[in-house]
Amino acid sequence: MSDAPLLLRPEDQAEAEAPPAAEATGGETGDWLWQALRTATTVEDYAAAWLPLVLRRIEAANMGAVVLGPPGRGPFRPVTLAPEGVSLPERLHAVAEKSMAERRGVAHVGKVEAPRLVLRPIGDQAEGDDRAAGTVLACPLIVEGAVHGVAGLLVRPIAPAAVRRLMRDLQWSVQSLEYALYRDQVGREKSSRDALAAAHEMLAGVVEESAFEAAAIAFVTELAEHLECERVALGFRRRNRSTVQALSHSARFGKRMNLMRRIANAMDEAIDQVSLVYYPLPTTAADESQIDAAHRLLAETSGAGQILTVPFSSNERIIGAIVLERAGDRPFKAHEIELLEYLAGVAGPVLDEKRRNDRWLGAKIGASTLTQIRRVFGPRYYGRKLALLAVVAVSGFLAFATGMYRVSADATLEGTVQRSVIAAFDGYVQGEFVRAGDLVEAGTILAQMDTRDLELEQARRLAERQELALEHSRALGIGQRAESAILMQRMAQVDAQLALLEEQIARAAIRAPFDGIVVRGDLSQQVGASLRRGDELFVIAPLDSYRVILGVDEGQIADVEVGQQGRLVLSALPDSALDLRVERMTPVAEAREGRTVFRVEAALDAPTLRLRPGMEGVAKVDVDERLLVWIWTRGLIDWIKIALWRYIP
């Protein structure tokens, strides 16, 4: 962190900027520390120069430590100790922890109970005896409300007033370190923003390309140019082996070339370790273990001095990797690795999606099926497993479960015998006594026709007969036998007409032919209206004998046979089902409500007194036991068969 001032005290600011010769002690050492402070590029380097300068300013200090870690969460560890080679007393650990917990400066004289230590010393150090005595000072490093660490000092035993002065000096001094932390944080945020902007530009180029091959080549080429790499390769993993799919600045390349195999092996090496592989490892990371045999062979083949492989994943599964090659004198920096990790996380799944979409339909179906199989039989995805168990259970049920196949049909209840009562002669309605729904007994007068015309005709015929009888007697008296015979015939004709009139008068009272119910007929609105001979006045049906008329659909009529049993539920009596038996099938089709039905007659096994002719309902005729799946899909299967027959040439 260059040009960052060391804040000791406001009045000492000028002295801090003074030439090293002004120091009481220091000489060349002071020059070196100030130069290291100004040219520090990391917070650790800054702290390594800052702490000795603080110890030189605070002459009573025996030792000091700077502890840093991830802001707000830790773990925190010492990054520098001064003087070099000293031990870090547990007292300083505990006081530093308390300072960070309470977010304020803490000074403590004497021993400190430290049941739990979160600060870890550097290396294996033994406690010092002579330096452990004295006062411990600790001041937290707080930047933008988050604790980044703590700076602690162990000073010689001094007076309480001097302790307060030293605490103020330490609090003023840590502001320089906090400023260094702030600048480091700002620099990292700026680097992240720049990396994010560059990543979005590259991702936009990937999204704009519709085809996978063009998008992949554009991506690796732009990545090679942005990071100044000699070569960038993109590969995807399939069947536990990686395949190079795109190479920077190369539209075509032989996938079986030795170089391509070495690149693919490097991808496999990083994917198997589930982490990026950097070859050769920097000296600062020499203690980290990684397998890089494939990268070593790739470096020997390609001559690249720096190789970095970054795997990427999709749907929590690693699907490929990116291999970047550079010259040996240009190692990859931390912000470049951060950019690559971000790019691999966002561009990898996008490229994989394009690759999947570019496959032919059969490959897509096969891959999708294989993915679902993995999810069903692999870990997690419990919903799919439960769905599979449900499908297996339902399939097993449908494969073996049977039920009674029944033919459903609309049904109408009719009397076994229905008698129509008609008008016996032309005339007028004089009165009516019943209507549809009334119960009647045999001989009950249903209606009365007007007989006045018939009675007048009867009186005229009687007068005519008397006149003929007188003429017949006169003819016999004068011996006119021929005339007498003619008059006898005319008298017989009049007698026949009188008999007809008497019969018509008798039939004017319309009576019920048997006990039953009036099914149809209502003359209440036709009193005085004329009737013609043969007009239907009433329909009467018996109450103890019924038949059921079924309208069976043409698609199911072949399943119905005489003698089959069934059940009938009437709309008026939905709580009781009546047993029936098919007695007759009429081979005559009728059009009813847009469909064709056949008339089937059935008899009730046990009629009840609550039944009335004309009731309607639904009847089901039992055919036989069949699979439930066949029963449920029979209509659809028949429709498909007819449709295929209609349209297939």
Plain-language structure description:
28% of the residues are buried. This protein has helices spanning 13-16, 28-39, 43-57, 90-102, 160-208, 212-227, 258-273, 293-302, 334-357, 361-377, 382-400, 452-477, 481-507, 628-647, and strands spanning 61-68, 77-82, 106-109, 135-143, 146-155, 231-238, 241-247, 277-279, 306-314, 317-326, 402-415, 419-422, 427-432, 439-440, 445-449, 509-511, 516-520, 530-531, 536-541, 546-553, 565-570, 577-592, 595-604, 616-627. It is an alpha+beta fold. The chain is built from 14 helices and 24 strands. Helix content is 41%, strand content 27%. The protein is elongated and about 190 Å long. Strand 9 (306-314) and strand 10 form a beta hairpin. A 6-stranded antiparallel barrel has the order 11-20-23-22-21-24. Strands 2-1-5-4-3 form a 5-stranded antiparallel sheet, sandwiched between helices. A 5-stranded antiparallel sheet has the order 7-6-10-9-8. The chain folds into 4 domains: 10-188, GAF domain (Beta-Lactamase), CATH 3.30.450; 209-358, Beta-Lactamase; 419-539, no CATH class; 545-647, Efflux pump adaptor protein, beta barrel domain (Elongation Factor Tu (Ef-tu), domain 3).
